[in-house]
């Protein structure tokens, strides 16, 4: 083992077989997407939702995305654009 600027480099390298790789990546046929629980709150004053109605004070949804940040971007530029706050958490594999 060698130390390079505080990075430890091990002489031994292990390669995963196909079945181990599928487990790490979420199994065969995995889309690679996560399902995130998101809540949109604090509707912007005077704004209407995409159906022309006053949005509810709080809107909860589950969304598929690559990450919590991706879910946030999708919602804040989509349905939740009429809200001041978008919070996405509890992201999990499908």
Shape: elongated
By DSSP, the count of extended strands is: 5
The portion of residues assigned to helices is 10-25%
Measured on Cα atoms, how large is the radius of gyration?
21 Å
Percent of residues in β-strands: 35-45%
Number of helices: 2
Strand ordering within the main sheet? 4-3-5
Distance between the termini: 38 Å
Class by SSE composition: alpha+beta
Tell me the layout of helices and strands.
Layout: E1 2-4, E2 7-9, H1 18-25, E3 34-43, E4 58-65, H2 68-76, E5 83-93
Task: Characterize the structure shown.
The chain has 94 residues and is of the alpha+beta class. It has a domain at 34-94. The chain is built from two helices and five strands. It has helices at 18-25, 68-76; strands spanning 2-4, 7-9, 34-43, 58-65, 83-93. It has a three-stranded antiparallel beta sheet, covered by helices on one side. Strands 1-2 form a two-stranded antiparallel ribbon. The chain is elongated, with a radius of gyration of 21 Å.
């Amino acid at each position: 083992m060698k130390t390079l600027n505080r990075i430890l480099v091990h002489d031994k390298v292990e390669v995963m077989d196909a079945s181990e790789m599928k487990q790490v990546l979420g199994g065969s046929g995995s889309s690679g997407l996560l399902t995130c629980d998101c809540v949109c709150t604090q509707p912007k004053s005077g704004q209407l939702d995409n159906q022309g109605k006053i949005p509810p004070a709080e809107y909860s949804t589950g969304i598929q995305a690559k990450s919590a940040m991706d879910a946030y971007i999708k919602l804040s530029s989509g349905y939740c654009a009429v809200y001041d706050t978008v919070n996405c958490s509890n992201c999990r594999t499908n």
